[in-house]
Structures are given as structure tokens and as C-alpha cells.
Amino acid sequence: xxxxxxxFAAKTHLFNLVPMxxxxxxxxxxxxxxxxxxxxxAVTRAGLTGVPVGDELRMGGGSGGGSGGPTxxxxxGMSGDLVWADERDADWERLLGAFTVGCSVQxxxxxxxxxxxxxxxxxxxxxxxxxVWDALTFAGAIAARACGAAHARMLFGxxxxxxxxxxxxxxxxxxxxxxxxxxxxxxxxxxxxxxxxGFAEPDALELMTGQWSIxxxxxxxQFPLGLRYVPVRQVPYNGPAAVxxxxxxxxxxxxxxxxxxxxGRDLMGGDTIPVEWMLAGLADLDVELVATLSxxxxxxxxxxxxxxxxxxxxxxxxxxxxxAAVVHHGGFGTVVNVLTHGVPNLTVPAPWWDExxxxxxxxxxxxxxxxxxxxxxxxxxxxxxxxLLHEPAFAEGAARVREExxxxxxxxDLVPAIEALTAEHGTGR
Length: 429
Description:
It comes from Streptomyces millisiae. Residues 276-421 form the Erythromycin biosynthesis protein CIII-like C-terminal domain. Belongs to the glycosyltransferase 28 family. Residues 22-261 form the Erythromycin biosynthesis protein CIII-like N-terminal domain. The chain has 429 residues and is α/β, with parallel strands linked by helices. The protein folds into two domains: 2-233 and 408-425, Rossmann fold (3-Layer(aba) Sandwich), CATH 3.40.50; 245-406, Glycogen Phosphorylase B (Rossmann fold). Helix content is 44%, strand content 13%. It has 18 helices and 13 strands. It has helices at residues 11-26, 40-45, 72-80, 92-111, 113-126, 139-147, 160-173, 183-194, 203-209, 263-266, 275-282, 295-298, 316-319, 332-340, 355-364, 378-390, 392-406, 411-425, and strands at 2-6, 30-35, 50-52, 130-134, 150-154, 212-215, 229-231, 255-259, 288-292, 308-311, 325-328, 345-347, 368-370. The strands form two sheets. It has a seven-stranded parallel β-sheet with strand order 3-2-1-4-5-6-7, with helices on both faces. The protein has a six-stranded parallel β-sheet with strand order 10-9-8-11-12-13, sandwiched between helices. Strand 1 (2-6), helix 1 and strand 2 form a beta-alpha-beta unit. The longest helix has 20 residues, at 92-111. The radius of gyration is 22 Å and the shape is globular. The termini are close together.
């Protein structure tokens, strides 16, 4: 079968799709990856065939793109409206605002305009049997509708969008007729009308949540929403890289990794956690600290403390098996690497998406600790890492979570289920 994968131009979101793309290709299926032109180098370096659609997104540097798009701070605010600890916090005004701005600004910026037009054109010409779309790239669902293909979302962590949208639909039904306002259906209808496609209100749920979702979230962490989730074990993909020789050199003290991920420095305009604080707190311990930080991230640090090795990039999939602990920002790609290798970990959550909730899930499972923002400082970092290194219960908890992950079907194992679901939902062209 032919499979079209689509994702907006962010390497972290592409990397989340790569293992599934290769599993499908290795099973003999044709695979294309469509995104804005500025992701094509990363696509081809992953060994996949890319098709550029639309204009460059230029997310880097937090500028919100070179085409007049919103800033990283705007994205953070919109995402935050879909993150809540208690359903009572998700009132109608909050969700109406989140989806109004989300549809008109965020979703449209990521995958609207010229990208959507050219993606629909590609889908109608190439005629895929299945479209797999990143969970913020709603153009994929519209393109699938335009060519009659089955379609599935690829999640990248906790499904805040579906949780928020299901709550939104529930609250929408309670609104009096004179206050009825449904910007999501209006946005979807407008996009479908553009391509001569009809829209009925029940279509909105499928277009926002997929006919089914491929879910790489670790067991027990996803929201119980009653949607059709197909679990997959995410195989870490860190991009092409050579493993440095020093990784396997003998060590005289425990090695600890510090990773703040790619999104903060590449997409969101910088990290929210002072790097100088982190190094000051962690380097006091008798450890070898490997800090994966760029020159820009290190600019505020006048002198590297002793026993700190700063490297701009090293593949976590190769570094973490040599580590006794890891300190990280809670991003989904980093969490997958950490849990896959069963490393006790300290989450210092970034504020972009599900970092805090993922950190709390890990802590609840006994595989690590989380430093809440109100408690953040050199002392809390030092104390947390010391506990991870000296209390065996954390290593035992991390090993248990790793065993649970290994029991989830791999991308290779999932291919027959995807083939069956595609046959079930396709139009039989």
C-alpha cells in the first residue's frame, strides 16, 4: 500500500515518525514524507523520501517563522490553555478561546495555506491508501478526505488536543442557541469547502482526532478518552550521528547526562531554565556530567565547572546506556530515550506541552523525581540527583518501566494492525 506521512517542519516531530515510517517501508510499503521545504534535509538524512509542500516554516529562533507567524510565546500560551490538572479548570470560555486561536493561528500556521493546498494536490495525484499525520498537522486529515484515504494520527505524548476537544464538544452542547459558537467546525468546513468537499458536524471529531491514533506514549500515561488508540513502542531515533569515542572510555565516577532537548533551543526561542543554575547544582557532586548544550546555551556560563563535558549533540540512544542518571526537561523524545534504557531520572519540566505531567508520571512509577518550578534551584537539583544516585529504589523503578515498554508492540509488530485498519477505513479505490 501507499502511505503518506505528513508533519510540520519541526525535527522533533519528524523524529517521532521515523521509526514507524521505516517499519512500513521495510514491510514493503511505499512511503512518502510531506512537509515544508525546510524539513527536507532532515527527512532525507533519515533515509526517507521527502516531498516539499508549501513555503518554508522557519520555526527556528522563536521568531514564529519568517512568514509573519506567531511567536513561540504565543504557541506556549495557546498550548497552556489545553493543559489542566482538574476538569473543573476547563471551562467553556477557556476552551473556546484555545480552539478559536488554535484554529485561526496555530494550526493554520503549522499546516495551512500553501502547505495544505499542495498537500491536497499531492494526495490527489499520488493516491495514498493511508495518511499518517502528526497530531498538530491537521492538513493530513483534510488531504486524506480529499483523496479518499484512510488516516491516522501519530501522537507525540499526552493527547491534550483530544481531551480538550472532547470537553469542548461536551460544553458546546450545553450552550444556549443564541450563544452557539463553534470555531472548530467553521475552520474545518472552510478548509473542506476550498477543495469541493462536503462537511457535516460529525466529521469534525474524526478530522480532529483521526480514524485511529498510533500512540507511542508509555503504558499507563495516556488519558482514558475512549478513542481508538493503537499502542506502539517508540524506538528512539536521534538523527544521523557518529558516536564519539569517549562514550565507551573507562569511567572513574558515575556518569550523569544533562539534556534540555532540541525544541527549546531550535523552535521555542531558548530554554526557560537557567543553565548556570543547573551546572552549579549538579557539578558539585562527584560525577562526570555530560551536558548536551549548544554554544548559545552556554553563553551565560563564564567557566565550565570541573568534571563537566559540554557537547552540542550526542545521540541519547548511545549515551544513556553508559549513565547512572539523567537530568532532563521532560520532552517526549527525551523521555522515550530515558525510559527505553531504564535510567533513573530527574525531570526539570519545560513549560511547552506535557513535560510536567510526564515527569510526574515517571515519579509516580518510582523511576525518578520531578523538580516543580516553585522549588527549582541549585540545591533542589543537587539533592534530587544525589537521591537518584544513592537510593537503589529509583534504578529498580526505572527497570520495571523499561520492562513494561518492551512488552508493547514495536513498529515492526504493528504493521499488520495498520494494514488491517487501513483496509477497514479506506474507500476501496
